[in-house]
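User: I'm preparing a small set of examples for a lab meeting where we compare how different chains pack in three dimensions. I only have the primary sequence for this one, and I'd like the structure in token form so I can line it up with the others. Please keep the answer compact; I'll paste it straight into my notes.
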Amino acid sequence: MYSPICIPTLCRADKFKNLVESLKKCNEAKDSELFVALDYPPAQKYEEGCRQINDYLETLTGFKAVNVIRRSENLGAIENIKSLLATVCENYDRFIFTEDDNIFAPAFLEYVNSGLDYFEGDKNCESISGFSYPVQMPESGTTVIKMQRYFSDWGFGTWRDRYFEARDTLTNDFFKKVYKSPSLAKKLRKASKKNYTRAWAFMSAPNVRPYDYTNSCGQILLDRYSIMPKKTLVKNTGWDNSGVHCDETSPIAKLFMEQELDMREHFENFVFDDAESEKVNAIVDKSMIGSYDRIPYLKTRVKEILYRYK
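Assistant: Understood. Below is the structure token output for the 310-residue chain.
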């Protein structure tokens, strides 16, 4: 049985259609259930895009089943995602998740489903990520990397138990404990100054959700990792200012927009090397991916010290 595919969306009709059409090119699509959570438009400017997505879904074929959850009121991005995953996890022990602005290589579903089988017994594995960072990978016989310092939610698969653990562990209180603990704060800071700086906000954020930067911190602090291919099977198309936190003028945008997908029809075996993975983690952190603003970082250092002794 193949993992269900979960997609939250609202109004980006063209990007949503491109995503689904790329998934349909995967051989496993016809045996996979699709779950789409279509949020209710919060304002008139979102209504046309939402209507176009709804019309497209009405006649969509190419999957084992197409399940559409149409919201009767606007939940917002985070609650729409949480509710969607809660629904899917009632009946499945694993799932594939993607935001609505990705496109996929033909081997994406094969790779993720095979990875979920291969790494299921390793409770330190958080996810099977289809995305890979645009850095120079070592030339060797390996095919995947164990990525600890950063987590990508641009198309990945995970297991119900891992999702619930992340959801219930990575809370406001968890991050308060991190900044109260010199050893934990140092562990996070040493691995990624970028994540260390961002994590400060997680102590008070009203709606912390697992994945993205939250899980990046969790992987570091809980000694977990995600599997990533050495060449990406996912491309994010939201770097045209349509995606949240995706500014087309940022230096990193060019890297992501110029990424080329691995277009092979099939993914080979999962071959990895721990020493090589550690090296790639360091390369990613020292690249533009791990770049951080020094002033906010130093302010966070000061706030950490004051918070610990208040």
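A couple of notes for your slides: The beta strands are 5-9, 33-38, 65-70, 94-97, 102-104, 125-129, 144-147, 156-159, 225-229, 234-236. Residues 99 and 209 are 14 Å apart (CA to CA).

User: Perfect, thanks.
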